[in-house]
Recover the amino acids of this structure.
């Protein structure tokens, strides 16, 4: 194996491999690319401590994945679970046993699940060949969960049991197809170079026997025990189709029940339960579905009772919120000694947002019943979705579910020290809190208008602009001026043909004339695909002939950036920017503008890293299609515009991309829209047809 040259083109990949002792693992590797852009046979394993050498081909997501996978690398596992110094070969031949495997494999699978969730979006998973080459074949990760249906067919002599799998409503054949279970919990199935996951919490061991077997037969002599011990729990958790016995799903109107228990010493206790028909479930019973087995003559009936978790939660919340009424009536709430003591009573947050010079200052306190604590104390609990919060006196408060959605983005995006602060570009998030009545917000009216694109002040057109803007183009021109005043970056996302170029040129002509009045001179940079150079030069000559423009292109271009100060605008390409980045980043531009900005949608690309390193007072992007394939396309473009607006790449993918694309979370989609709305102006041809 040759060592990869980090100064040449390379690519990080994630390779699925089967360890002789530990089972399936995923390893990150960096592979040299040949002149044709294909994988070569030069590659090396990459670790957190070696990753910086390959920074040029790594994104923030890659760093996160590498750190996750470091924890399940064999040397790391041995060091963590075996305290003596030992070589891996010696450990596996002399120390390793089934007990060690049973101990570490669940930890490995937890990390695999974490990595695979990210790889669903990143899509860089390959199969390692038997000689260790990490890119033998590309593995496709299923775009949505597969479903499993367990079948039982009972006759006079036996019951046959087998599963079927459907993906995108089509049955997939997996028996006798060399399929592999790469993880037990949760189950991941590798079949024909596609890695499937499932819509229920299924264990791989329930599928394993059927990779090389059509069915399992249970003789009639053992069916009673089998039905009770195996089939009933299976029906509780999974979809089951049966022939030869009945499964009845029963619907009941639920009722909350307070049951009184009399105990020694003349004392009594009240226990909250929920009654569904004849079935009563104590509140502490966590089963969402319960199955009761009934035998009638030679027939078996499985009664399936599904509880309403949301309804039960509402009843609990009602009791918690009205505990003061019980106390006012003379009731004393006692809790068992030696166990957690919970705080009862209403929970609320008093949150106030005030606008500073460059920040929004957030002051908030939380009330759990009679207890008051700083809002900032909840940060780690909100971010990690931990509901139980221990108060200073040892009592435990329960954080309401809705707070995780309402305040998760706030904690993730805020600058936190002794107080919480949000940058001005998080105006959308602040407005969202205000609209949902979650915060008392004080803003100057001018800034408030940005979020709705309302009443933005009219900006005088430049004297030397040769042409007329349509009304919607003039509105875009005014919007540019507003963004400049507040030092915000913006994305003009009008449909193709609606004049993004002419709106931008009008703005740059206005900047030149304002500079002349102030006796200053500034230079702006516009980066675009090569195919657009001619159009920009032609449009500038037609509408803004007073702008002095340099096309920084071609093999004979002058790389002395000091020369840029003689021009109003420098026009160049993404390719030249990548090559000349070390020179370009030494010049301080007024504007850096990206046309067809989807060219930087990949955060690991050299184009994104190059433009991000450029220095400027203002930034704009132009694109009719800022989202081409995934919501994830937004992160790099809006991070270029307003660094920190969408948080870290890892946070954005977990909080928004996966939630919106995989889980179809409409609330997260709405939240993201509110954050980006002030900085994206989009008009379609249909909207402006009358003009």
């Amino acid at each position: 194996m040759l060592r990869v040259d980090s100064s040449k083109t390379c690519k990080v990949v994630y390779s699925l491999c089967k360890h002789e002792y530990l089972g399936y693992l995923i390893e990150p590797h960096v592979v040299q690319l040949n002149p044709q852009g294909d994988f070569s046979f030069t590659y090396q394993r990459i670790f957190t401590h070696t990753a910086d050498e390959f920074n040029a081909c790594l994104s923030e997501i890659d760093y996160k994945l590498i750190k996750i996978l470091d924890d399940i690398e064999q040397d790391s596992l041995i060091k963590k679970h075996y305290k003596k110094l030992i070589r891996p070969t010696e450990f596996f031949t002399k120390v390793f046993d089934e007990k060690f495997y049973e101990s570490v494999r669940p930890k490995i699978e937890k990390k695999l699940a974490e990595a695979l969730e990210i790889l669903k979006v990143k899509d860089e998973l390959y199969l390692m060949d038997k000689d260790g080459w990490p890119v033998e074949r590309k593995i496709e990760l299923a775009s949505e969960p597969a479903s499993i249906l367990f079948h039982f067919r009972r006759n006079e002599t036996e019951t046959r049991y087998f599963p079927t799998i459907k993906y995108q409503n089509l049955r997939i054949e997996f028996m006798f197809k060399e399929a592999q279970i790469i993880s037990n919990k949760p189950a991941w199935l590798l079949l024909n170079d596609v890695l499937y996951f499932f819509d229920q919490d299924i264990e791989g061991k329930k599928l394993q026997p059927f990779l090389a077997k059509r069915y399992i037969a249970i003789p009639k002599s053992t069916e009673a025990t089998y039905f009770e011990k195996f089939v009933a729990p299976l029906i509780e958790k999974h979809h089951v189709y049966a022939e030869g016995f009945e499964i009845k799903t029963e619907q009941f109107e639920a009722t909350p029940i307070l049951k009184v228990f009399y105990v020694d010493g003349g004392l009594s206790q009240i226990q909250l339960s929920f009654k569904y028909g004849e079935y009563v479930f104590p509140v502490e019973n966590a089963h969402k579905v319960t199955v009761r087995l009934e035998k009638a003559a030679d027939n078996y009936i499985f009664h399936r009772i599904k509880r309403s978790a949301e309804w039960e939660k509402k009843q609990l919340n009602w009791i918690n919120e009205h505990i003061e009424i019980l106390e006012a009536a003379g009731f004393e709430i006692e809790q068992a000694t030696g166990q957690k003591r919970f705080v009862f009573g209403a929970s609320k947050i008093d949150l106030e947002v005030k606008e500073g010079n460059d920040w929004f200052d957030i002051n908030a306190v939380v009330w759990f019943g009679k207890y008051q604590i700083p809002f900032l104390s909840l940060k780690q609990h909100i971010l990690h979705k931990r509901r139980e919060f221990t108060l200073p006196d040892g009592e435990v408060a329960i954080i309401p579910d809705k707070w995780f959605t309402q305040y998760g983005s706030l904690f993730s995006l805020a600058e936190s020290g002794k107080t919480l602060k949000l940058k001005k570009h998080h105006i959308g998030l602040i407005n969202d809190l205000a609209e949902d009545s979650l915060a008392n917000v004080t803003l100057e009216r001018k800034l408030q208008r940005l979020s709705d694109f309302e009443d933005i002040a009219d900006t005088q057109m430049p004297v030397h602009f040769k042409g007329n803007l349509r009304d919607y183009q003039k509105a875009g021109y005014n919007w540019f001026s507003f963004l400049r005043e507040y030092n915000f970056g913006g994305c003009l996302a009008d449909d193709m043909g609606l004049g993004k170029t002419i709106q931008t040129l009008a703005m740059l002509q206005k900047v030149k004339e304002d500079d002349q009045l102030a006796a200053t001179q500034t230079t702006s940079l516009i980066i675009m695909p090569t195919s657009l150079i001619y159009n920009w030069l032609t449009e500038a000559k037609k509408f803004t002939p007073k702008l002095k423009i340099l096309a920084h292109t071609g093999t004979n271009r002058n790389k002395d950036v000091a020369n840029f100060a003689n021009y109003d605008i420098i026009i160049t390409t993404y390719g030249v920017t990548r090559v000349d980045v070390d020179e370009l980043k030494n010049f301080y531009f007024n504007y850096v503008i990206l046309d067809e900005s989807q060219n930087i949608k990949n955060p690991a690309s050299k184009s994104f890293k190059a433009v991000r390193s450029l220095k400027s007072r203002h930034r704009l992007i132009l694109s009719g299609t800022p989202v081409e394939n995934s919501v994830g396309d937004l992160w790099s473009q809006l991070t270029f515009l307003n660094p920190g607006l969408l948080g870290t790449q890892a946070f954005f993918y977990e909080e928004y991309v996966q939630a919106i694309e995989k889980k179809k979370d409409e609330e997260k989609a709405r939240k993201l829209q509110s954050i980006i709305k002030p900085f994206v102006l989009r008009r379609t041809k249909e909207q402006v047809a009358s003009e």
Residues 147-244 form one domain. The mean pLDDT is 88. The chain has five domains: 10-141, 147-244, 249-319, 347-443, 456-681.
